[in-house]
Amino acid sequence: MMMDQKEVLELLRAVAAGKLDAEQALLRLKTAPFEDMGFAKPDYHRALRKGTAEVIYGAGKTPEQIRVIIAALREHGQRVILITRMSADAAELVRRDFPLQYDELSRIGVVGEIPEPDGIGKIVVATGGTSDMPVAEEAARTAEALGNQVVRLYDVGVAGLHRLLAYQEEIMSARVIIAIAGMEGALASVIGGLADCPVIAVPTSVGYGASFGGLSALLSMLNSCASGVSVVNIDNGYGAGYLAGMINHM
Predict the structure, then answer these.
(1) Which of 24, 93, 122, 234 is the 20 to 30 Å CA partner of 61?
(2) 248, 120 in Cβ contact below 8 A?
(3) Which ranges in 146-227 belong to alpha helices (H)?
């Protein structure tokens, strides 16, 4: 049975209180840390080690491989399974056997029930434009699957700054902000100058030729003059959502 850090702590407290003997506790902890399936090695102890269970990166995997990994994780007790960059074909196959929630825009799939938010505050996900929404939804749905409350502020880029300023209350009360933008990537600097919380900048590959597939936005965000802005890789909504969730639970 897969256990997270909270469950292991409760187990140890039960042993300390004499409610459970050491042999029973050992039996519950003995599950092998991973399984060699030939094409994959699912990590069953990641929730114990990291606080967050295994996530499946769907790109490059066949629908059947994804289905088999999900089955293995479920057999070992993982209640919520997040699949990123999941194709519609994979979603169709997985849905035959498991309770899958699938979003075509972000290509995020979730098997199991989204947990109730238990983070400290709110995560704001803001985009420069509507074209950034696939990356933004990857970030937002990742954060929600990890137990966070998310506020979405889409299409509030610097080409119409008044749109962003209309949401100052949400920006200034956030625990973490994910700023997602392509083109010149200026949104992260503007938000960084307004917010008193960490800002995670996500450059996207949105833009014309000289944006070089997101490289222009990436360099702009790395060179931001606003303090408290960090940057993840181009189009890496998952990485931003995961990091924001970690910050919101600290």
Answers:
(1) 234
(2) yes
(3) 161-165, 168-172, 187-192, 215-222
- Within the chain, where are the H helices? 5-16, 22-29, 46-50, 63-75, 88-95, 133-145, 161-165, 168-172, 187-192, 215-222, 237-248
Q: How many CB atoms lie within 10 A of CB 72?
A: 16
DSSP, collapsed to helix, strand or coil, labels residue 181 as: strand
DSSP state of 143: H
Instruction: Collapse the DSSP code of 72 into the 3-class scheme (helix H, G, I; strand E, B; otherwise coil) and give the result.
Output: helix
177: three-class secondary structure by DSSP: strand
Going by their DSSP bridges, the two strands 81-84 and 108-111 should be labelled as: antiparallel
Q: Going by DSSP bridges, is the β-strand pair 55-57/81-84 parallel, antiparallel, or unpaired?
A: parallel
CA distance 170 to 123: 9
54: left (phi over 0), alpha (psi -120 to 50) or beta: beta
Locate tokens 């960084």: which residue?
Answer: 192
Whole-number Cα distances in Å, 160 to 5, 68, 166, 188? 45, 47, 11, 15
pLDDT tens digits along 177-188: 999 999 999 999
Question: How far is the C-alpha of 198 from the C-alpha of 177, rounded, in Å?
Answer: 6
Average pLDDT over residues 67-91: 92
195 pLDDT higher than 90: yes
CA gap 243, 223 in Å, rounded: 20
Please name every residue paired with 201 in a beta bridge, in sequence order, or none if there are none. 179, 231
* pTM of this structure: 0.86
Phi and psi at residue 177, to the nearest 5°: -125, 135
| Order of strands across the sheet that contains 108-111 | 55-57, 81-84, 108-111, 100-103
